[in-house]
Fold these 3 entries.
Entry 1:
Amino acid sequence: METSSVRRWLTLAVISISGGISFDLAYLRYIYQIPMAKFMGFSNTEIGLIMSTFGIAAIVLYAPSGIIADKFSHRKMMTFAMVATGLLGLLMATFPPLWLMLIIQVAFAITTILLLWSVSIKAASLLGSHDEQGKIMGWMEGLRGIGVMVLAVFTMWIFSLFSADNPASLKTVILTYSGVYILLGVLCWLLVSDGHATAGPQEDRKKFSWRDIVAVLKIPTTWYCSMIIFGVYTIYALLSYSTNYLAEMYGMTLVAASYMGIVVNKIFRAACGPLGGLVTTYSRWRSPTRVIQLLAVLAFVTVALLLFTHSHPMGISVAITLILLLGFTCYASRGLYFACIGEARTPKHILGTTVGICSVIGFLPDVFVYPIIGHWQDTLPAAAAYHRMWLMGLAAIVLVLLFTGLLFRQLKRQPDFNGEVQDLSGE
């Protein structure tokens, strides 16, 4: 590494925090679904539609985002993306009608997915060697979580300063996010390198071609990694309903349930990502794929117990414990699933493209989870809606178990893989 250790970690922090909190306005429902319905006038189904609009646009843009990461300046892309996202937040703070909110969500997808997603992952990956990928990706997820957690707690404190019926509470939260985005855009300009645009190894200077996409799609591990992400991300999406679940099923107050949501979706994200990286670095389970598989076994047992306690309530403390345990397995896995791509030694000149393709498939739950569960919330009794939600989670974990097994078997068959796409695809 040419950069100093301090600058490298500072750069990783800025890249990670920017990439993490940039989605918070697009995913405002995760913590503020009830205030959104109250102050912005949206039903649960409409909020689900807002979320799925972002998800659909994101799915379309993930693959092109990989191309951008392989061809354009990381510094310019990240700076523009963060500033533009902040400006969109200013528009969102006007509490626009549904049609305009849907347009804003599409614009959020352009700034956070097309211009930022694969760029941030590749920019972080290039800060470490192949052997450091598990640690870099784990710390990236953890630093993302720290940024998200700190800002979430701060904005929740701001929200609590207003009376329960004051719409300025939500408006001020949105404006705070917007200001932070613009500030991070400035820091990206100062710290992030151009990445692809700079001179480097010959492999990194290869021009993108459609044959790269075809080659990536032919690699079996691309599909295995994609489905692992798909399963883990489904659990991640379901955990965003923990606030509503505890409030509606166990009678927690809105403020208490919201802080619980911050613990699950923010604090655990900060702590569990680096923990997963440390496990792969220092334990006998050196493989990120193997660690995700073990976490999936624990998650399966946890969701099975959630289904049981849902039908036979055993007290709020049991429910909280199980949700926290599920959050641990989910966020530790999220800190590792892109490291699985590194296990396959993906060539650097198509690393961004691979991330983009895996993201297209892996983040499909953004398209269907929120409108489906929103519809269940609006049309079914709460108990029935959340029972179906946990059944969806159980199915997702089965996918993780299946494809981690297939990926681990494939990797064991290729112990001497030298980095060429043809070798791993069997050509």
Entry 2:
Amino acid sequence: MRNADQPIQTDVLLIDDSVSDLRVLMDMMKLKDLRVSVALSGERGYQQAILLKPSLVLMDVRMPGMDGIATCRQLKAHPAVRSVPVIFLTSANDLDERLEGFAAGAVDYIGKPFEVREVLARVGVHLQRNLTELALGGPSTGVQPSEASMDVRLVVKAQQVLSQALAHPPSLDRLARMVGTNRRRLNEAFQALCGQPVFGWLREERLRQANSLVSGTHTPFSVLSDALGFSKPANFSKAFRQRFGCSPSEMRAQFQGAVAAGPTPDAGWVEPSATAQDPGPHRPALLPPGADQALR
């Protein structure tokens, strides 16, 4: 039985006022055997994030009341959950909205309507931190692979090698030998745990680090391009725009302008003291009050 003081484990918190979108996302998360909690508003999503401390938040941008941008700012202002990655869900292709989301602390965007492979690939990339903790024997609320932790260890070891050699990664065969397996097994492990093959993950990791470095440093883009393994700055800029919907210079200007202005958390917000039910051995989605009826 769960200790009353032990937090409920949640892999992914879904925050969206659309019941139909929540249904689609919940079905996708089941494909990866992820623990899921849902919230139908930004206010409730913030409460559940504090209570459940999820490994990842998928959140709609446009919601009545406290929208996704405001909710993300609240999460990033709270010490207990500020490190939790937030991915925005949006049907809009508005550059200003995307830039505002990144400035608020989001790590990624997923467009509506959802494409299963894209959603699972991006969720897998941003859950990587939990796989690392699991492989190293630390606490984790992340993915629990169906096979023994051997695949997790292979993936984490390969990720460590690739992260240290982004500009000049080894070939797939050499990488597999370095971590003690073969190319087929390694690709299958990446596909199962990250939603994409090895070099698909490498591309995402390059762009993930590009996002962080563009937003958080003044390093010239030509230097970032070389360090991240792009053949020339123009290719870096093109890949960045395709991935994040804006150029590196646009993101840097917006993000650093937001930092200079400072965060604007809701001063009237009171941290909740809510409780939730134990999800039980079958790990169903954790629903806010009334949402279970709405989703039926």
Entry 3:
Amino acid sequence: MSKQIPIPAAAAAAGMTTLVFEDDFDSMDTIDIDATHEPGYKWYPDAYGCRLTRDYITQQDSYIHMGGPQPKAYGLVTYNNPVDTGFTVTCGCYMEARIRAGMPTGEYGGIPAFWTFPLASMKGEAWTEGGELDVVELFITKNKDGEDQKYFAGTLHHHYRSTDADGKLVCEYTSNTVNSCGFRDQFPFVDDDWHTYAVLWEKGRIAWYLDGVLTHAAEYTADALPEYYYRDDPTPLPRVHEVYPHVTKPERIGAHTIFDTDEGVVFLTSRETYPMDVDWVRIWRK
């Protein structure tokens, strides 16, 4: 690699000094924008039946812009699902992306996002269990004074399908974000500047960083869930498992240990009313 890329302090401290994935988006050459499904690209526009188009992704000034008419919001992925090749991540890495996202137009809610989702789930092979790691998801909502407020979340989700004794599907999709490290408005902002979002993903612990500053961390074991925070309140909420009447296994305490064995696909996601620019993505390992 011709250019020298500095190792983030948190990655270096954890011994993760080998750059295993990097894209600075100096061109569109790393994106299979025409969905050829040929190997060798870093990003593919197909995920769960949604194919992004050239109208949705443009390259300019050494970054990509993601935004435009699009019926679904899955975005670019690092895995070429139709031919079963591509890049995946596992526990024991440091992931970061430099992103710029202003205020959305005409719609509240979430996305843009930089996140991972299990490869097996993406391929439709193992929807029984799956861990979603949101390095960052940006939101827009109203604050207590009724003003528009942008904030971000770094979150763990545990998804699963549940069946009864006869194999009949009981619960198609459930997320236990109540038990994850949720939304902390510790660094509120409304600016349109570039920010670097990152996670240090180690066994039993995931830590989130904004511009190199630790914002929060989630620790979990086989018998203990991560603490859950909500918005700008720094006090952890009780570690209680949410109960859905249609879920057959509400006893999944410590389920976040699934992150220790997950093989994940990396996503860059935006939506029509909330576009984002991405300067680069970098992933480090030991």
